[in-house]
């Protein structure tokens, strides 16, 4: 096996891919948080999606904590990115905290949206006069029956000042001076560059120097079994989490309110995590240890691709305006 400055090529590749994955995960929720803030709405997100994901991150935190007690070796399959299991545990805790921030933001905006809806209903009932044509009343309320129309109408009329910014963030901007595809591509490229540089800096700082291993519990100990069980539980949660979001998008025939970059970063993090595991070792025992994390990462990539297809399928269609030509 080739060795570069004290570590093998496989270890170097694993470290680079792992650092890229970490960078993607750290930045993961920022696009969606910004999208919600600028739109002043979180109606595009499925709350069951976020809650199941949070539960998966909590189980993942427990799995890494157990792994920190049984195997602190520089193996990315068992310890995220740096190979230091306590660091991986701290990162898993950060992911849980980030989930709670996003969930809190969604609850806040959903409460505001419900309050506005009640105010509109009360105002309409107060202002409606007895001699108002019935047809006009029906026309005013007919849009509520259309899938996703209530969210679009409220965001268009009430938050029209945020609409141009929201379209840029969610990839729906149609103005000539905006190129969301380019912006997303540059963001993903930046994640790769920053992640690779981050690994290089950590390597120069000695993060990949192998410490003396202390006495550890047996691999078949109760702690190890609990850790593996929590790993599988987190994988199941990650695989199930996106299903409510996919169903919501299908029912409303819309992906409005979702940040495309959010799912692109998720795909990047999962892809580079899998690459890191397989780069580090092709040994069957190492792969078996990483199966829960591989299932959770690589399995959700398929569901992310379904969501990408929904973005394309439900994107606003630009109608030809030939009838406007004199």
Can you describe this structure?
Keywords: Membrane, Transmembrane, Transmembrane helix. It is found in: Membrane. This protein has 12 helices and 2 strands, in the order E-E-H-H-H-H-H-H-H-H-H-H-H-H. With 326 residues, the protein is mainly alpha-helical. The protein has one domain. It is globular, with a radius of gyration of 24 Å. The C terminus is likely disordered.
Write a brief structural summary:
InterPro entries: LAAT-1, PQ-loop_rpt. The protein is mainly α and 326 residues long.
Strand order across the biggest sheet?
1-2
Number of helical segments?
12
Helix content: 55-70%
For the residues shown, what is the average pLDDT?
76
Strand content: under 5%
Q: Give the CA-based shape.
A: globular
Number of domains: 1
Summarize the topology.
Blueprint: E1 3-4, E2 7-8, H1 9-27, H2 30-39, H3 47-70, H4 85-127, H5 134-141, H6 149-158, H7 163-170, H8 180-204, H9 222-252, H10 260-280, H11 284-289, H12 291-313
Antiparallel strand pairs: 1-2
């Amino acid at each position: 096996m080739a060795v570069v400055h004290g570590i093998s090529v496989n270890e170097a590749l694993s470290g680079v891919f792992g650092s890229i994955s970490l960078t993607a995960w750290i930045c993961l929720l920022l696009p969606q948080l910004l999208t919600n803030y600028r739109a002043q709405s979180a109606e595009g997100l499925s709350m069951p999606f976020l809650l199941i994901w949070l539960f998966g991150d909590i189980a993942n935190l427990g799995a890494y904590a157990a792994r920190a007690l049984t195997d602190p070796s520089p193996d990315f399959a068992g310890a995220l990115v740096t190979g230091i299991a306590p660091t991986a545990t701290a990162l898993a805790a950060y992911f849980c905290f980030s989930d709670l921030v996003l969930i809190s933001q969604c609850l806040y905006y959903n409460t505001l949206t419900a309050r506005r809806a009640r105010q509109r209903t009360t105002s309409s009932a107060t202002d409606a006069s007895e001699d108002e044509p019935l047809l006009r009343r029906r026309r005013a309320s007919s849009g509520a029956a259309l899938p996703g129309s209530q969210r679009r109408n409220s965001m268009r009329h009430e938050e029209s000042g945020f609409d141009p910014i929201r379209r840029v963030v969610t990839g729906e901007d149609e103005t000539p001076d905006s190129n969301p595809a380019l912006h997303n591509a540059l963001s993903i490229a930046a994640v790769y560059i920053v992640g690779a540089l981050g690994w290089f800096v950590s390597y120069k700082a000695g993060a990949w120097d192998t410490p003396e291993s202390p006495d550890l519990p047996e691999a078949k100990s109760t702690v190890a079994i609990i850790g593996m069980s929590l790993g599988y539980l987190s994988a199941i949660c990650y695989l199930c989490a996106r299903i409510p979001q996919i169903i919501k998008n299908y029912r409303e025939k819309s992906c409005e309110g979702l940040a495309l970059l959010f799912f692109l970063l998720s795909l990047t993090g999962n892809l580079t995590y899998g690459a890191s595991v397989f780069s580090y070792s092709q040994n069957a025992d190492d792969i078996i240890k990483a199966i829960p994390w591989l299932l959770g990462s690589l399995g959700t990539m398929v569901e992310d691709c379904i969501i990408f297809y929904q973005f394309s399928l439900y994107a606003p269609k630009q109608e030809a305006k030939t009838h406007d030509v004199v």
